[in-house]
Amino acid sequence: MRLKMFPARRCRSEQKYLSIVVKATRLAADTLQEEKMIRHIVIASVGAGLLAATAMAQTASPPPPSSAGGTSSTTAAPAAPPPTNLAGQGKWRSSKLIGVDIYGPDDKKVGDVTEVIVDKAGKIEMVTVGVGGFLGIGSKDVAVPFEQVTWSDQPITPPAPAPSASGGSGGGMGGAGSTASPPPAATAPKAPAMYPDHGKITLTKEQLQAAPAVTYSGS
Predict the structure, then answer these.
(1) Is the pLDDT confidence value at 73 over 70?
(2) Which pLDDT tens digit goes with each residue over 116-125?
């Protein structure tokens, strides 16, 4: 019986040896495939890095010099928009309204504008006219609705002087002391002032002095 068991044990040992050899062969093949894959990955990474470096170098390279005059071509900056000129468009500056002379119905000055009052929507409701006093002492401000002021861009025309009595017999040459008045000198056109020359109201100076004063208490 012992002599018959020796071949069986030998066969089992050979089978174990063969299985070990097969496993080792498979492991070596897998390792070889992994090494090949790693090589491919490394080669691909190096190639991608070289391509990226080449693209960056081409992008960062300065533009070639222009052939015209040997100067480099530069992109001109966009021109700034021209300023908006509001003069001559029928608009007034509220800051320029302050100080404008106000005349009464008899074309006599009764005061000047001291303040411009607007509502919350920005519409002018009234102006205040400073009346009375001397050099700002003892004067007061009287509110006048803006619609009741007639504004004019032309100055007040002074009344024409009364004709002087001509002496002598009134012959063809006229009186001895009469002289012809020179024609008015031509004035150069004025630039748009953006404020009126004066305003005119229907109240006299006495009525403005009797009107209640404007205060700004609490403001």
Answers:
(1) no
(2) 999 999 999 9
Residue with tokens 């000129």: 85
Q: Which of 198, 5, 218, 173 is nearest to 103 (CA)?
A: 198
Tokens 């071949």 correspond to what residue? 7
Q: Which residues pair with 126 in a beta bridge?
A: 117, 145
pLDDT in tens, 34-58: 777 887 787 877 777 777 777 676 6
**CA distances, 23 to each of 15, 98, 190 (Å):** 12, 107, 110
Name residue, tokens 């070596």.
28
Please state, in angstroms and rounded to a whole number, the distance separating the CA atoms of residues 118 and 126: 7
- b/e for 131-151, b at 16 or more Cβ within 10 A? bbeeeeeebbbbbbebeebee
**Ordered DSSP codes for the chain:** -HHHHHHHHHHHHHHHHHHHHHHHHHHHHHHHHHHHHHHHHHHHHHHHHHHHHHHHHHHHSPPPPPSSTTPPP-PPPPPPPPP---TTSS---HHHHTT-EEE-TTS-EEEEEEEEEE-TTS-EEEEEEEESSBTTBS-EEEEEEGGG-EEESSPPPPPPPPPPPP-TT--TT--TT--PPPPPPPPPPPPP-SS-SEEE-S--HHHHHHSPPP--TT-
